[in-house]
């Protein structure tokens, strides 16, 4: 094994770290990019293995930017979202890639990445003395209802996969409690490490002169609530007694359905759809950001919005209340009527609403990328020493 576990007084050896996940979009991809940058800067050799069938021009540009940082490279191969007939071939291709990279640390993100990392890390142990197998759920299978047949299946699999896990990393206390409730008390070392932002992201973003009232930015799927956002805009217009302009930034398989919803409600001249773009570029397009998710773990978009000093409305799901604090007036429920009411209240006096946002000093102390990377590196060495 190339890595050595060192005492607290000695600089740790360089590790060969491979991050495995399925879809290179959204919060997981953002999380991995930040980790990879910090780990490479710390002297580790880092690589990425992920799906080749998802992502677009924005993701391709992000991968291109990372090439000079990732000593172990970017390796993309088709990965199915759900278990199916093609999964065996996909798994075999992924295993061969990971085996060639000879990782000291195999860090799986999300349900599919977590399964691959733990299974393949266990297979690698047949021929190697040690590979640390870490898993970050990022919500993933934990979003399923434990009362359903699908949920019971996934949680039984998670319980079994614990035998092939060295360390669990949770991005929110909500996620950790959901694991305990749905899967069971973790049988391996685990810790809570919040997502973190870079220092430059704590600079304010000023809205353009012709900025819209509202912004939705994220994946176009029901879990993230684009349909709630659209219905809420229609209801907020009635409450305010004026038209509202909104921008929706993102992509996904359900996008055509949301376009149809906008047309059906007669909002097509006031809600504009745009392709994915960097979050800070999108923030300049509107005055108020809305995150209407039905489920989350610890969404980066909430952290990014607040760090950019943009006022926002967010649903009190997952780890979001851990960012705002319980009882924050910015929190609401994933219901179009309730979100629409909150939209109308905020837009009626945006300056006053802005004052209800968390303080920047509190955000930087709790959600810094340097803090996140240091805590995860500590988990890596603990897993290797285990």
TrEMBL record:
The keyword Transferase applies. Coiled coil: none annotated. This is Glycosyl transferase. It comes from the Bacteria. Signal peptide: none annotated. It comes from Mesorhizobium hungaricum. Residues 25-197 form the Glycosyltransferase subfamily 4-like N-terminal domain. Keywords: Transferase.
């Amino acid at each position: 094994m190339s890595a050595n576990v060192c005492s607290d007084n000695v600089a740790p050896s360089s590790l060969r770290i491979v991050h495995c996940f399925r879809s290179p979009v959204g919060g997981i991809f953002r999380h991995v990019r930040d980790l990879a940058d910090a780990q490479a800067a710390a002297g580790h050799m880092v690589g990425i293995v992920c799906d080749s069938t998802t992502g677009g021009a924005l993701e391709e540009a992000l991968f291109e930017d990372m090439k000079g940082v990732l000593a172990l490279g970017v390796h993309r191969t088709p990965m199915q979202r759900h278990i199916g007939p093609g999964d065996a071939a996909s798994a075999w291709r992924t295993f061969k890639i990971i085996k060639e990279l000879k990782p000291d640390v195999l860090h799986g993100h999300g349900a599919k990445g977590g399964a691959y990392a733990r299974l393949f890390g266990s297979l690698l142990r047949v021929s190697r003395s040690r590979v640390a197998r870490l898993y970050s759920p990022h919500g993933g299978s934990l979003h399923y209802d434990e009362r359903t047949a699908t949920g019971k299946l996934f949680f039984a699999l998670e319980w079994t996969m614990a035998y092939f896990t060295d360390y669990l990393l949770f991005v929110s206390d909500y996620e950790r409690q959901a694991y305990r409730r749905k899967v069971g008390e973790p049988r391996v070392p685990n810790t809570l490490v919040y997502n973190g932002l870079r220092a430059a992201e704590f600079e304010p973003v000023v809205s353009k002169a012709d900025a819209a009232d509202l912004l939705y930015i994220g994946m176009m799927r029901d879990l993230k609530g684009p349909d709630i956002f659209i219905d809420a805009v229609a209801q907020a217009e009635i409450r305010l007694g004026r038209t509202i302009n909104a921008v929706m930034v993102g992509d996904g398989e359900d996008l055509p359905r949301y376009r149809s919803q906008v047309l059906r409600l007669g909002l097509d001249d006031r809600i504009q759809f745009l392709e994915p773009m960097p979050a800070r570029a999108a923030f300049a397009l509107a005055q108020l950001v809305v995150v209407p998710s039905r489920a989350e773990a610890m969404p980066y978009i909430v952290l990014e919005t607040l760090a950019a000093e943009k006022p926002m409305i967010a649903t009190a799901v997952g780890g979001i209340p851990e960012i705002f604090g319980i009882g924050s007036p910015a929190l609401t429920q994933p219901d179009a009527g309730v979100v629409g009411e909150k939209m109308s209240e905020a837009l009626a006096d945006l300056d006053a609403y802005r004052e209800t946002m968390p303080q920047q000093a509190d955000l930087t102390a709790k959600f810094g990328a340097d803090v996140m990377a240091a805590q995860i590196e500590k988990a890596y060495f603990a897993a290797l020493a285990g």
